[in-house]
Amino acid sequence: MSGTDLLRLREEERDRLLDRLVASLERDERVVAAWLSGSLGRGTADAWSDVDVWVVVADAEAANVIEALPAFVAAVAHPVLVLEAPANAPPGGGYLLALYQGETGAHQIDWYWVPRSTARVPAGARVLFDRLGLLPEPAAAPFAEGERAAALTHAGADFWIAVLLAGKAVARRRPWAATRMIGWAAAALAEVEWLVAHDGPASHDDLKATGHEGRWAFPGLAPETQLAVLLRVAAAMAALAPDVAALGGETAPDGARQVSTFLDSVGDSLAPGLPSDGIGEA
Protein backbone atom coordinates (compact mmCIF):
# COMPACT_ATOMS: atom_id res chain seq x y z
CA MET A 1 0.00 0.00 0.00
CA SER A 2 1.35 3.42 -0.93
CA GLY A 3 1.68 6.16 1.65
CA THR A 4 -1.14 8.10 -0.01
CA ASP A 5 -3.44 5.09 0.08
CA LEU A 6 -2.62 4.45 3.72
CA LEU A 7 -3.45 8.02 4.72
CA ARG A 8 -6.70 7.88 2.78
CA LEU A 9 -7.63 4.58 4.45
CA ARG A 10 -6.84 5.98 7.88
CA GLU A 11 -9.08 9.00 7.31
CA GLU A 12 -11.85 6.72 6.02
CA GLU A 13 -11.56 4.53 9.12
CA ARG A 14 -11.79 7.55 11.39
CA ASP A 15 -14.76 8.93 9.45
CA ARG A 16 -16.62 5.61 9.79
CA LEU A 17 -15.86 5.55 13.51
CA LEU A 18 -17.14 9.12 13.79
CA ASP A 19 -20.32 8.19 11.91
CA ARG A 20 -20.94 5.36 14.38
CA LEU A 21 -20.27 7.75 17.26
CA VAL A 22 -22.82 10.30 16.02
CA ALA A 23 -25.44 7.62 15.39
CA SER A 24 -24.91 6.21 18.89
CA LEU A 25 -25.25 9.62 20.51
CA GLU A 26 -28.35 10.54 18.53
CA ARG A 27 -30.03 7.31 19.66
CA ASP A 28 -29.35 8.11 23.30
CA GLU A 29 -32.20 10.19 24.70
CA ARG A 30 -29.98 11.38 27.56
CA VAL A 31 -27.77 13.22 25.07
CA VAL A 32 -29.03 16.63 23.96
CA ALA A 33 -26.09 17.86 21.87
CA ALA A 34 -22.54 17.08 20.79
CA TRP A 35 -19.69 18.88 19.12
CA LEU A 36 -16.12 18.32 17.99
CA SER A 37 -13.24 20.42 19.24
CA GLY A 38 -9.55 20.27 18.36
CA SER A 39 -8.35 19.97 14.78
CA LEU A 40 -11.55 18.27 13.56
CA GLY A 41 -13.56 21.12 15.03
CA ARG A 42 -11.31 23.76 13.45
CA GLY A 43 -11.17 21.98 10.09
CA THR A 44 -7.39 21.52 10.23
CA ALA A 45 -7.28 17.76 10.80
CA ASP A 46 -5.00 15.39 8.93
CA ALA A 47 -4.95 11.61 8.74
CA TRP A 48 -3.23 11.36 12.13
CA SER A 49 -5.65 13.59 14.04
CA ASP A 50 -7.67 12.13 16.86
CA VAL A 51 -11.31 12.86 17.71
CA ASP A 52 -12.20 15.27 20.53
CA VAL A 53 -15.91 14.93 21.17
CA TRP A 54 -17.98 16.84 23.72
CA VAL A 55 -21.21 15.17 24.79
CA VAL A 56 -23.90 17.28 26.43
CA VAL A 57 -26.24 15.33 28.67
CA ALA A 58 -29.48 16.33 30.37
CA ASP A 59 -28.83 17.61 33.88
CA ALA A 60 -31.04 14.93 35.45
CA GLU A 61 -29.01 12.19 33.75
CA ALA A 62 -25.51 13.62 34.14
CA ALA A 63 -24.60 11.79 37.36
CA ASN A 64 -25.79 8.43 36.02
CA VAL A 65 -23.92 8.85 32.75
CA ILE A 66 -20.68 9.88 34.45
CA GLU A 67 -20.83 6.86 36.75
CA ALA A 68 -20.91 4.53 33.72
CA LEU A 69 -18.52 6.14 31.22
CA PRO A 70 -16.80 2.88 30.09
CA ALA A 71 -20.13 1.43 29.02
CA PHE A 72 -20.94 4.67 27.21
CA VAL A 73 -17.79 4.61 25.06
CA ALA A 74 -18.26 0.88 24.33
CA ALA A 75 -21.64 1.62 22.74
CA VAL A 76 -19.78 3.01 19.70
CA ALA A 77 -17.36 0.09 19.27
CA HIS A 78 -15.30 -2.10 21.56
CA PRO A 79 -12.37 -0.02 22.83
CA VAL A 80 -9.01 -1.76 22.90
CA LEU A 81 -7.75 0.56 25.64
CA VAL A 82 -9.41 3.05 27.99
CA LEU A 83 -7.64 5.64 30.14
CA GLU A 84 -9.35 7.49 32.97
CA ALA A 85 -8.03 11.00 33.59
CA PRO A 86 -10.47 12.86 35.86
CA ALA A 87 -8.27 15.96 35.86
CA ASN A 88 -9.19 16.46 32.17
CA ALA A 89 -12.92 16.52 32.89
CA PRO A 90 -14.85 19.79 32.60
CA PRO A 91 -16.52 21.07 35.80
CA GLY A 92 -19.33 18.75 36.79
CA GLY A 93 -18.56 16.45 33.86
CA GLY A 94 -16.42 13.50 32.90
CA TYR A 95 -13.56 12.45 30.63
CA LEU A 96 -12.21 9.26 29.12
CA LEU A 97 -9.61 8.55 26.45
CA ALA A 98 -10.47 5.48 24.38
CA LEU A 99 -8.56 3.70 21.63
CA TYR A 100 -10.48 1.83 18.92
CA GLN A 101 -9.24 -0.81 16.51
CA GLY A 102 -8.39 0.04 12.92
CA GLU A 103 -6.62 -1.63 10.03
CA THR A 104 -4.08 1.21 10.10
CA GLY A 105 -3.72 1.04 13.89
CA ALA A 106 -5.48 2.53 16.88
CA HIS A 107 -7.81 5.51 16.55
CA GLN A 108 -8.07 7.81 19.56
CA ILE A 109 -11.22 9.46 20.84
CA ASP A 110 -11.06 11.92 23.71
CA TRP A 111 -14.50 11.90 25.28
CA TYR A 112 -15.76 14.85 27.33
CA TRP A 113 -19.14 14.88 29.05
CA VAL A 114 -20.75 18.08 30.31
CA PRO A 115 -24.16 18.80 31.90
CA ARG A 116 -26.64 20.79 29.82
CA SER A 117 -26.79 23.67 32.31
CA THR A 118 -23.08 24.45 31.99
CA ALA A 119 -22.55 23.58 28.31
CA ARG A 120 -21.43 26.39 26.02
CA VAL A 121 -20.27 25.84 22.45
CA PRO A 122 -16.77 27.29 22.01
CA ALA A 123 -15.63 29.17 18.97
CA GLY A 124 -14.00 26.82 16.48
CA ALA A 125 -16.22 23.88 17.40
CA ARG A 126 -18.05 21.75 14.83
CA VAL A 127 -21.55 21.01 16.12
CA LEU A 128 -22.65 17.45 15.35
CA PHE A 129 -26.22 17.94 16.51
CA ASP A 130 -28.11 20.17 18.92
CA ARG A 131 -31.63 19.35 20.07
CA LEU A 132 -32.10 22.37 22.34
CA GLY A 133 -30.13 25.28 20.90
CA LEU A 134 -27.04 25.65 23.02
CA LEU A 135 -25.60 29.02 23.86
CA PRO A 136 -22.18 29.93 22.44
CA GLU A 137 -19.28 30.30 24.80
CA PRO A 138 -18.84 33.99 25.57
CA ALA A 139 -15.76 35.65 24.18
CA ALA A 140 -12.89 35.90 26.61
CA ALA A 141 -12.99 39.13 28.55
CA PRO A 142 -10.10 41.50 27.92
CA PHE A 143 -7.45 41.73 30.57
CA ALA A 144 -8.02 44.01 33.51
CA GLU A 145 -5.44 46.72 34.03
CA GLY A 146 -2.03 45.20 34.65
CA GLU A 147 -3.06 41.60 33.91
CA ARG A 148 -1.64 41.51 30.40
CA ALA A 149 1.72 42.85 31.56
CA ALA A 150 1.79 40.31 34.40
CA ALA A 151 0.96 37.46 32.03
CA LEU A 152 3.70 38.54 29.62
CA THR A 153 6.20 38.77 32.46
CA HIS A 154 5.34 35.29 33.73
CA ALA A 155 5.39 33.65 30.31
CA GLY A 156 8.72 35.29 29.49
CA ALA A 157 10.31 34.07 32.71
CA ASP A 158 8.87 30.60 32.04
CA PHE A 159 10.50 30.68 28.61
CA TRP A 160 14.00 31.56 29.77
CA ILE A 161 13.92 28.94 32.54
CA ALA A 162 12.90 26.33 29.96
CA VAL A 163 15.74 27.41 27.67
CA LEU A 164 18.23 27.15 30.53
CA LEU A 165 17.07 23.64 31.45
CA ALA A 166 17.10 22.60 27.79
CA GLY A 167 20.66 23.88 27.44
CA LYS A 168 21.69 21.95 30.53
CA ALA A 169 20.22 18.75 29.06
CA VAL A 170 22.03 19.40 25.76
CA ALA A 171 25.33 19.88 27.58
CA ARG A 172 24.83 16.59 29.41
CA ARG A 173 23.98 14.75 26.17
CA ARG A 174 20.49 13.88 27.38
CA PRO A 175 18.64 14.31 24.10
CA TRP A 176 15.15 13.26 25.14
CA ALA A 177 15.18 15.56 28.16
CA ALA A 178 16.46 18.35 25.90
CA THR A 179 13.66 17.71 23.42
CA ARG A 180 11.03 17.98 26.17
CA MET A 181 12.51 21.23 27.42
CA ILE A 182 12.70 22.68 23.90
CA GLY A 183 9.00 21.90 23.53
CA TRP A 184 8.31 23.69 26.80
CA ALA A 185 10.24 26.73 25.59
CA ALA A 186 8.40 26.73 22.26
CA ALA A 187 5.03 26.66 24.05
CA ALA A 188 6.05 29.58 26.26
CA LEU A 189 7.18 31.51 23.20
CA ALA A 190 3.81 30.88 21.53
CA GLU A 191 2.05 32.21 24.62
CA VAL A 192 4.12 35.41 24.60
CA GLU A 193 3.40 35.88 20.89
CA TRP A 194 -0.32 35.42 21.57
CA LEU A 195 -0.30 37.89 24.45
CA VAL A 196 1.50 40.50 22.36
CA ALA A 197 -1.18 40.21 19.67
CA HIS A 198 -4.32 39.73 21.83
CA ASP A 199 -5.78 41.61 24.77
CA GLY A 200 -6.97 38.47 26.53
CA PRO A 201 -5.68 35.12 27.80
CA ALA A 202 -5.02 32.25 25.41
CA SER A 203 -6.94 29.01 25.79
CA HIS A 204 -5.39 25.63 25.08
CA ASP A 205 -7.13 25.56 21.70
CA ASP A 206 -5.93 29.08 20.93
CA LEU A 207 -2.31 28.03 21.39
CA LYS A 208 -2.84 24.80 19.45
CA ALA A 209 -4.27 26.82 16.58
CA THR A 210 -1.08 28.87 16.34
CA GLY A 211 0.69 25.78 15.00
CA HIS A 212 3.60 26.25 17.38
CA GLU A 213 4.00 22.48 17.80
CA GLY A 214 4.97 22.15 14.15
CA ARG A 215 6.78 25.46 13.80
CA TRP A 216 10.15 24.19 14.93
CA ALA A 217 11.42 21.09 13.17
CA PHE A 218 12.25 18.16 15.44
CA PRO A 219 15.75 19.01 16.62
CA GLY A 220 16.99 15.45 16.34
CA LEU A 221 19.19 13.85 18.95
CA ALA A 222 22.56 15.35 18.11
CA PRO A 223 23.45 17.97 20.75
CA GLU A 224 24.76 20.43 18.15
CA THR A 225 21.46 20.33 16.28
CA GLN A 226 19.44 20.70 19.46
CA LEU A 227 21.51 23.69 20.50
CA ALA A 228 21.01 25.30 17.09
CA VAL A 229 17.22 25.03 17.49
CA LEU A 230 17.45 26.45 21.00
CA LEU A 231 19.39 29.44 19.72
CA ARG A 232 16.76 30.12 17.05
CA VAL A 233 13.96 29.89 19.61
CA ALA A 234 15.86 32.24 21.95
CA ALA A 235 16.40 34.72 19.10
CA ALA A 236 12.66 34.71 18.36
CA MET A 237 11.91 35.57 21.99
CA ALA A 238 14.58 38.28 22.08
CA ALA A 239 12.97 39.89 19.03
CA LEU A 240 9.72 40.23 20.99
CA ALA A 241 11.33 42.15 23.86
CA PRO A 242 10.43 45.65 22.54
CA ASP A 243 6.77 44.65 22.10
CA VAL A 244 6.64 43.07 25.55
CA ALA A 245 8.17 46.17 27.12
CA ALA A 246 5.76 48.45 25.27
CA LEU A 247 2.87 46.53 26.85
CA GLY A 248 4.34 46.88 30.32
CA GLY A 249 5.83 43.42 30.64
CA GLU A 250 9.18 42.78 32.30
CA THR A 251 11.68 41.40 29.80
CA ALA A 252 14.33 40.50 32.41
CA PRO A 253 17.23 41.56 30.13
CA ASP A 254 19.90 40.52 32.65
CA GLY A 255 18.37 37.07 32.97
CA ALA A 256 18.00 36.70 29.21
CA ARG A 257 21.63 37.71 28.66
CA GLN A 258 22.84 35.27 31.30
CA VAL A 259 20.86 32.41 29.74
CA SER A 260 22.27 33.35 26.32
CA THR A 261 25.79 33.31 27.77
CA PHE A 262 24.99 29.92 29.27
CA LEU A 263 24.04 28.64 25.81
CA ASP A 264 27.36 29.93 24.48
CA SER A 265 29.10 27.94 27.19
CA VAL A 266 27.09 24.87 26.23
CA GLY A 267 28.27 25.30 22.65
CA ASP A 268 31.88 25.57 23.79
CA SER A 269 31.45 22.43 25.89
CA LEU A 270 30.44 20.45 22.81
CA ALA A 271 33.89 20.94 21.31
CA PRO A 272 35.80 17.72 20.59
CA GLY A 273 37.83 16.41 23.48
CA LEU A 274 35.51 17.53 26.27
CA PRO A 275 33.62 14.96 28.41
CA SER A 276 30.38 13.71 26.88
CA ASP A 277 29.11 11.20 29.42
CA GLY A 278 26.43 13.50 30.79
CA ILE A 279 27.49 13.04 34.41
CA GLY A 280 25.95 15.48 36.86
CA GLU A 281 22.62 16.46 38.27
CA ALA A 282 20.53 19.59 38.68
TrEMBL record:
Taxonomic superkingdom: Bacteria
Residues of the Polymerase nucleotidyl transferase domain: 19-60
InterPro entries given in the database record: NT_sf, Polymerase_NTP_transf_dom
Gene3D superfamilies assigned to the protein according to its UniProt record, in alphabetical order: Beta Polymerase, domain 2
Molecular function as annotated in GO: nucleotidyltransferase activity
Protein name, UniProt field: Polymerase nucleotidyl transferase domain-containing protein
Origin species: uncultured Thermomicrobiales bacterium
